[in-house]
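Internal ticket #5521
Category: modeling
Description: The requester needs a full-assembly model to guide mutagenesis choices. All entity lines are attached below as received. Residue total reported by intake: 1134.
Assigned to: D.W.
Attached entities:
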Amino acid sequence: MNHIIYKKLSDCALRREKADLVLKNARVVDVFTDAIYAADIAITEGRIAAVGSGYEGRQETDLGGKYVLPGFIDAHLHLESTMVTPNELISLAALCGTTTFIVDPHEAANVSGTDGIDYILDQTEHSPANVYVMMPSCVPATDFDDNGCILTADKMAPYLENPRVLGLGEVMNSPGVISGEPGLHAKLELFGGRILDGHAPSLSDEDLSAYVAAGIRTDHEASSYEYALKEARRGLHVHIREGSAAHNLKDIVNGIISDGICTENFSFCTDDKHVEDILRQGHIDHNIRTAIRLGIPPVQAVKMATINTARCYGLHHLGAIAPGRQADLITTDDINTLTILTVYHKGKRLDPAQTPVIRKCPDALKHTVRLEPVTSDIFRLPITKDEPHVIQLNPAQITTADVRRHFEKTENYIPSDGFCKVAALERHKGTGLTGIGICEGYSIRGGAVASSVSHDSHNIIVVGDNDADMAAAVNAVIRSQGGYSLACQGNVYDTLPLPVMGLMSEAGFHEVNKKLERMILQAHRMGVPEDIEPFITLSFLALPVILQLRVTPRGVLDTVNFRYIEY
Amino acid sequence: MNHIIYKKLSDCALRREKADLVLKNARVVDVFTDAIYAADIAITEGRIAAVGSGYEGRQETDLGGKYVLPGFIDAHLHLESTMVTPNELISLAALCGTTTFIVDPHEAANVSGTDGIDYILDQTEHSPANVYVMMPSCVPATDFDDNGCILTADKMAPYLENPRVLGLGEVMNSPGVISGEPGLHAKLELFGGRILDGHAPSLSDEDLSAYVAAGIRTDHEASSYEYALKEARRGLHVHIREGSAAHNLKDIVNGIISDGICTENFSFCTDDKHVEDILRQGHIDHNIRTAIRLGIPPVQAVKMATINTARCYGLHHLGAIAPGRQADLITTDDINTLTILTVYHKGKRLDPAQTPVIRKCPDALKHTVRLEPVTSDIFRLPITKDEPHVIQLNPAQITTADVRRHFEKTENYIPSDGFCKVAALERHKGTGLTGIGICEGYSIRGGAVASSVSHDSHNIIVVGDNDADMAAAVNAVIRSQGGYSLACQGNVYDTLPLPVMGLMSEAGFHEVNKKLERMILQAHRMGVPEDIEPFITLSFLALPVILQLRVTPRGVLDTVNFRYIEY
């Protein structure tokens, strides 16, 4: 700590100087002893100087016995997945009490490499919350990806100096870890002694042991209590995820309560939570409330969003109400229902009426769709096999099934009976690579949907029942330098531009949401089933780490046997 | 972790290779979930590869359902205070299950500076336990000390590179912290982000807040539950001390149980525990047993000696039984009485029959008493005041009282009626500084006791009822280049040489103890009361941080008002 700031803190603690702000008559939630006690909180220079009685401040707020909690921490999330710019999302979530965000900018890195990471760091430097970055470990996610950048250990090394970079982001390549793959282990070693975040869904007991032995410290992929317990026993810190798509909290928390195990090594995260869900139900506060409702004692639940996470990431200045810690504080009048009344960040009260600042993006990051306009003939798909493989969508899930269907042999397959063509077009390097396949269950009729958000490489993905609409939708995405587009009977119905790396809009949440709702409605009108979100479902159809068939710019990939499908 | 070692661990976890050792049929104490479960523990390359069933090893040991615990950690101790060489103490304590020692070599540093610290590091590098060093923060302890070395931040800086140096040792100078003293704050900043150990007995609420705000993270000086609670609430990790002299455990643990507070932020330490006490009652295992007997649930108590401490010091490879962690393990057949059956360090079973290795000390560190032989006239003490101050010993405590007594004015005071002269002779730099005073309560008749162990500067301290025996005892200590000496009616009764920095013997515990017992017996025969340990009491009479009068080479110091006494 700066020497001048320390002297101010010390003088305030010793009652030689008035505090900047005193929160009088607080009920302090003490995450160290699990007790709640009455005290004043003296704040100076954005930090807590003392928690005691009778402190005087230049400003004083009488809380009248309200509870004060440490600000909440989201242990793992991706800012770029929300389509709004980072500061906008953070500003909204901070009003729910999340004052610290541990983010993995791997979407940005897959498009723009370290420039994308710098964008996230720069955009969030003056946000009304603390934003820490985990360096994306798997860019590209697999050897089957055609993305915008290969992020090696060498490129990461300069970030070790950045105090806002805490460690290595979710290590998805568990086979690479376990087999000792040198490039990946170079990254583990580079961040040795720091925190290495994991991503380890459904590993066998043996694989999970080997994975943990490499020094991985956390995971947020446990979707059942049994799996979470298996992880906790191995020393992994389990981030219980409750976001827009993944709902893991209930099962894990019920198991914790039922077994009565210690919650010290559990935290909360959202991973991906969209603005509309944050506005509707809250952010990490929603995880805490849900855990309390299921039966976790309130202080324990609060700890899972505060000190447990701060300790896990070595954030000694956060996560508790104690001298020297940053004054990130929340007030509530009910420790069970946890209605957030006010939020303080660095001792300043956040103003819910203030519109989030949308910071401008460097121009280069708004020109990342490097692809010439296409014509419909690039979607030609000859059928030469008797019963080709078809990607069957699983409703309300991101996995797909690999099914065989009979089609007539032809020079160019023309979809009918609810089948669609789906294609991925490389968009980073102008290679012209285009992979095409057939899917079942999307069911759009007389049109096509295209997106530059397609995990994790974020090439352009398009689905449709005719080549002309597919080309129209793709060209609309190219014109807007990224976005979502819906084409309908030869015309572009609408386009949501996402020009920031092809992932985010600078138009603000309300504008984005208005357009998105209209496009989703139209897609459903055109035949996309109600239990399929047309854009999100599409954006996961390219992700090669998910079972069972995926479309990539090199063709349809069987992710069980890792081979390409022939038609 | 080394890549080749990782591959072996991974192959073992995946059952591709046999383990070096499998502990079959263990009851594993899981400090992450607070549960105990049945499993085999597969160990390879000194690390745990997996905890599961059916693992095969080149060596297998059937535990038949015995409990296996992680090796214990002593959170804070001084190796040099035990008179034996470091490896001897560690070897004995390791057999009690303490496999990790977090040591502060501030005695060695006060005598020999960084050479003393290097000695501790070198001596313990191949000990049968993990030894980590906290850099002594207060060398010298006060501005009133004449010690062997001034340890500045600059001199400490190279130690940041040493992976066995974890942070800054107990910061005793709390006024310096609170007032922002630049030299001290330079040390706090040097170790910023690492662990800063505290030493904060009896601070006011305000002072303690200011002290903690400087980033201090631990304290081991709490002697009551009330004080420990005050520390815990401020975010200090409380090391509960139970050693040879300090007995803080019962009061603190009873309070924890009574209030039902969380024990996550509590650990165990010994601070100073002598070999005879270790042989009689154990080491950290004694702390755990006592806590369990008082009512702490066994797994909680074990955590206070394992994972809590490992986490506090960032020792991610220790403190738990999980893949990748070091195989420091203990077996017991009763989790309540905790009789230690076997201890494994890095997967190797410690052999209780093996005599501890006594490693040789560099020659220079055996020549640290830089003082010419003295004659009895240096102990001349003229009395010019009516009622001079007298140092009154408090039986069984290290504090003293400041009392006034009437003596006749004289050219040289000659003790009688149970009074003694006490003197401190600077021994590091040959300055010839000698401070002399009068004490009450030591009561030796016809002799003198001298010691080169005198906290924290370790000058020569001597107490006696006549100048000739005082000179004889001091000269015996000078001849042996450090040690304890007892002179009796003009002759040296015996000397225990402590030639290693004037603090330690290379003769081994049994030799030291035999001689010490004989000398203590004789001192009591010569009038030293039974409730005063003649050498330890003497060794604390020079420590200027303890109330109320102390003898230093510059004279008798009033440690309340920090001024020297005149006779």
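Resolution: model delivered.
Comment from assignee: Chain B has two domains: 71-318, 364-564.
Ticket closed.
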